[in-house]
Design brief:
Order of helices and strands: HHHHEEHH
Keywords: DNA-binding, Transcription, Transcription regulation
Shape: globular
Pfam families: HxlR
Low-confidence stretches: none
Radius of gyration: 18 Å
Helix content: 40-55%
Strand content: 5-15%
Number of domains: 1
Largest sheet: 2 strands, antiparallel
Number of helices: 6
Distance between the termini: 18 Å
CATH architecture: Orthogonal Bundle
Mean pLDDT: 93
CATH topology: Arc Repressor Mutant, subunit A
Strand order of the largest sheet: 1-2
InterPro entries: HTH_HxlR, WH-like_DNA-bd_sf, WH_DNA-bd_sf
Protein name: Transcriptional regulator, HxlR family
CATH superfamily: Winged helix-like DNA-binding domain superfamily/Winged helix DNA-binding domain
CATH class: Mainly Alpha
GO molecular function: DNA binding
Length: about 150
């Protein structure tokens, strides 16, 4: 799958990595996908320092992948939690693909730490490359076309 000449300077993969390419950002998005909402939980579950957690959460909010929402526990002050936006939800297949690739190739001791299943049927949730007609597309069948 060779890219046409001149594509690299306008690469959407590079632009995406500029938004979410850091390890810490991907870990925060993983946690958001798993249901984490509160700042302290993000810091603990990712192992990031509080300043790094704050910085990366703010970047993900600015990038439009997370949004802040107010909440209040009884007798406490108003605080903010973080939720995936529609763009953040659109990123979930990328998180799934990273998990799937890691399960197969990263060699985590003891095997995969989690399994993700479809609540409707119990089948494993996987990422697959398909065309808009639903056909699986192996790399040898992907054709790159320059659009501009």
């Amino acid at each position: 799958m060779d890219a046409p000449t001149g594509v690299r300077e306008h690469c959407t993969i590079a632009a995406t990595l500029d938004l979410v390419g850091s390890r810490s950002s991907l870990l925060l998005l993983r946690e958001a996908a798993l249901g984490t909402r509160r700042f302290a939980e993000f810091a603990v579950r990712t192992g990031l320092s509080e300043p790094m957690t704050a910085r990366r959460l703010a970047e993900l909010v600015d990038a439009g992948l997370l949004e802040r929402a107010d909440y209040r526990e009884p007798g406490r002050r108003v605080r903010q939690e973080y939720r995936l936006t529609p763009a953040g939800l659109d990123f979930l297949p990328v998180i799934t693909a990273l998990r799937q690739w890691g399960d197969a190739h990263a060699g985590v001791p003891g095997g995969p730490p989690i399994a993700v299943a479809h609540a409707g049927c119990g089948g494993e949730v996987v990422a697959q490359v398909r065309c808009t007609h639903g056909h699986p597309v192996p790399p040898s069948e992907a054709v790159v076309t320059r659009l501009r």
